Amino acid sequence: MTDPTGAKQVLEVRDLSKSFGALQASKNISLDLRAGEIHALIGPNGAGKSTLIKQISGELRPDSGSVSLLGHPVDNLSRVARARMGLGRTFQISALAMDFTVLQNAVLGALGARGGVFRFLGNVMRDKALVAQAEQALERVGLLSDAKRRTADLSHGQRRQLEVAVALTLQPRLFLMDEPMAGLGAGGSQALTGFLNTLRHEAPILLVEHDMDAVFALADRISVLVYGEVIATGTTDEIRNNAEVRRAYLGEEEAV
Ligand SMILES: Nc1ncnc2c1ncn2[C@@H]1O[C@H](COP(=O)(O)OP(=O)(O)OP(=O)(O)O)[C@@H](O)[C@H]1O
Questions:
Q1: pLDDT at 255
Q2: Which residue of 16, 49, 93, 176 sits with most ligand 1 atoms within 8 Å of its CB, as the best mutation to test the pocket?
Q3: Of 112, 146, 171, which residue constitutes the final position of a domain?
Q4: Which of the listed residues 112, 115, 165, 198 has the most CB atoms within 10 Å of its CB?
Q5: ipTM score
Q6: Where in the sequence is the domain holding 3, given as residue range(s)?
Q7: Distance 191 CA to ligand 1 centre (A)
Q8: Are residue 185 and residue 167 in the same domain, yes or no?
Q9: Tell me: the pLDDT tens digits for 37-80?
Q10: Where do the ABC transporter domain residues begin and end (predicted)?
């Protein structure tokens, strides 16, 4: 649970491999997430970033390798069990109920945190503790004043904020975030960057992101995935100056 630098590891991935038919989407991937850090995972489209996130969250079963959360092996645990252990997740594609209000979506998240027992929405909304928990999460992402709005009427950026709020209601110990900046304008991604910067102290984040400004502003460490393989892990400076990374990924981005 403690690495050579003495930092506590909240997530440890060892030698994870996954194939889809002849395509090897994950090749012996090892990485870790330490307390208080943002570890960014970058790489070209199709490199295997989402596939890796899904194996960590429990949505996809690896062919081999292991995942530990907070020092416990979770290879035989379901996605729900891993979430209950404190693994928070935001998605590349929105998982919000569009016809519900902002508050209703956040309350459903808070209900999930309590074990996800099905209840009628009207009864759930009368549960003061749940509503308070949801409102607190909305306030933290700056959406409390929009609590009564229909989710479908929010801007794209506000929906991404709401997704973070829903994940926050689960009071995660660590986060997996899959492209949270996607589709945000400059203002939106700057606001979310500021928020993630404070969130890391409460729950470290494994961040999959294509927005290189956000990645280099936020990450303590970066891992670069190319064709299912981690070709480098290091600080932002180490990655920026890594010749192989520049050739395989960053150079390609600059050329676009
Ligand atoms: N369920 C699946 N069945 C077959 N192939 C898949 C499946 N899921 C992913 N793949 C393939 O695995 C490879 C890695 O895909 P993945 O979505 O993990 O990449 P990514 O790095 O997240 O890409 P992007 O940046 O575009 O989201 C791709 O070639 C993809 O087509």
A1: 42
A2: 49
A3: 171
A4: 165
A5: 0.96
A6: 1-86+172-256
A7: 29
A8: no
A9: 999 999 999 999 999 999 999 999 999 999 999 999 999 999 88
A10: 11-252
